[in-house]
Write a structure and sequence with these properties.
By secondary structure, this protein is of the alpha/beta class. It is 36% helix and 24% strand. The protein folds into three domains: 147 residues, NAD(P)-binding Rossmann-like Domain (Rossmann fold), CATH 3.40.50.720; 162 residues, Dihydrodipicolinate Reductase, domain 2; 82 residues, ACT domain (Alpha-Beta Plaits, 2-Layer Sandwich), CATH 3.30.70. The protein is built from 14 helices and 17 strands. Strands 7, 8, 9, 10, 11, 12, 13, 14, 15, 16 and 17 form an eleven-stranded mixed beta sheet that branches. α4 links the parallel β4 and β5. The longest helix is centred in the N-terminal third of the chain and has 17 residues.
């Protein structure tokens, strides 16, 4: 069988990991692919001392890799959007298959990229774009193909999960743990993408398209970060038998599709509630198989390289007959599933209300909730801290539309006895 030549663009963390793992396991990879798979060209601004580039062509212009007639598969690992998009589209135009780990690129420009790939009869593979080394795209797109998938819920950002784990286990403040994640290299100097949910929203966009057969619609994902999380809320959740996780949730309903990323209370008995540190996990609900959970490293050089190389091998196996599996898992996209506005999602809620320590205030809050069709499931009244005049009330509600909760919170905040904003965190049981 003729060899498959790979060109890698970018020798950063993931690029170097991919280069080294592929070189290290060349024999096994060739046996799995049914033909030799070799790196023949690398495009990078500078060499990475972790990589032995002996015998490999090196270019400082990454577009030279695309133009190389001997390269069959272009691996885009430079990140970002503009140059990466131009690189991928140029490779497609040259008739080359592409592998990428770039979740932002796929979430925001995937519809355009996949259309170009199908016109040119090439493959764009992106397993590594979601949850690092966990083969979740393949699981949904191939392993669960017999199922009508009703929902996906995932811890898909390791930095946020590490922060919430430290806050729960050690009682630390958000700002303190964030500084540590930056020092450890888990978070960037500007951590916005991680802690405000943008990274998770990119990944959820890709998961939802594969689960439901809808176009990629990153701009319609409701996104809320964890920067407002406090030690108090983490502690109160624990007292109620819940843990707070930063979840990406995609749910198919009779009205449309919910796409949302936000802090979420989960019962502490759920397996996904016990995924801690920088680990990722994705829970998928299928009608035939039931709930299935996929757990592992969501980032890191070699974990992500594992997914990148899996895509390379898939392409190498079918290099002469590409496109056997549709890019988003469905040969025909389902166009009649609207993405619901956040007002129209249905979930339960945790509320923390600071109220003046006066007789009858609990009854007024209960009446306000009832007037908006909201039923309470649990309530804790905490003692006011010393020298404080405000008492924390902790409420759990039954599921209700977000708009009804918005109206209720506005009415509660208008009460004379409530002088601060109501803290609201959504609750998911994840039992069906």
């Amino acid at each position: 069988m003729k060899p498959v030549n790979v060109g890698i663009c970018g020798l950063g963390t993931v690029g170097a990991g991919t280069f080294n793992v592929l070189q290290r396991n060349l024999d096994d990879i060739a046996r799995r692919a049914g033909r030799p798979v070799r790196i023949t060209h690398v495009g990078a601004r500078r060499d990475n001392p972790a990589c032995d580039l002996t015998g490999v062509k090196v270019s400082r212009d990454i577009f030279d890799v695309v133009k190389d007639p001997d390269v069959h598969i272009v691996v885009e690992l430079i990140g970002g959007l503009t140059v990466a998009k131009d690189l991928v589209l140029a490779a497609i135009e040259q008739g080359k298959d592409v592998v990428t780990a770039n979740k932002a690129l796929i979430a925001e420009f995937g519809n355009e990229i996949f259309e170009a790939a199908e016109k040119n009869n090439v493959v764009v593979a992106y397993e590594a774009s979601v949850a690092g080394g966990i083969p979740i795209i393949k699981a949904i797109r191939e392993g669960l193909v017999a199922n009508h998938i009703s929902g996906v819920a995932g811890i898909i950002n390791g930095t946020g999960n590490f922060i919430l784990t430290e806050m729960r286990d050690k009682g630390r403040a958000f700002e303190d743990v964030l500084a540590e994640t930056q020092a450890l290299g888990y978070a960037e100097a500007d951590p916005t993408f991680d802690v405000e949910g943008i990274d998770a929203a990119h990944k959820l966009t890709i998961l939802a398209s594969n689960a439901f057969g809808i176009p990629l619609q990153f701009d319609k994902v409701y996104t809320e970060g964890i920067s407002g999380m406090t030690r108090e809320d983490v502690q109160y959740a624990d007292e109620l038998g819940y843990r707070i996780k930063h979840l990406g949730i995609a749910r198919r309903t009779s009205e449309g599709v919910e796409l949302r990323v936000h802090p979420t209370l989960i019962p502490d008995k759920r397996l996904i509630a016990n995924v801690d540190g920088v680990m990722n996990a994705v829970l998928v609900f299928g009608d035939a198989v039931g709930p299935t959970l996929y757990y592992g490293q969501g980032a890191g050089a070699e974990a992500t390289a594992s997914a990148v190389i899996a895509d390379i091998v898939d392409i190498a196996r079918d290099i002469d007959s590409p496109g056997l599996v549709p890019h988003l898992g469905f040969s025909v996209e389902t166009q009649n599933l609207p993405v619901l506005h956040s007002d129209d999602i249905t979930t339960a809620y945790y509320l923390r209300i600071l109220v003046k320590d006066e007789v009858g205030q609990m009854a007024k809050i209960a009446e306000t909730l009832g007037n908006n069709g909201i039923n309470m499931e649990a309530i804790i009244q905490k003692e006011a801290p010393e020298d404080e005049v405000l008492v924390p009330l902790i409420l759990l509600t039954q599921p209700v539309k977000e708009k009804a909760m918005n109206d209720a919170i506005a009415a509660i905040e208008a009460l004379p006895s409530v002088t601060e904003k109501v803290i609201r965190i959504r609750v998911e049981r994840l039992d069906s």
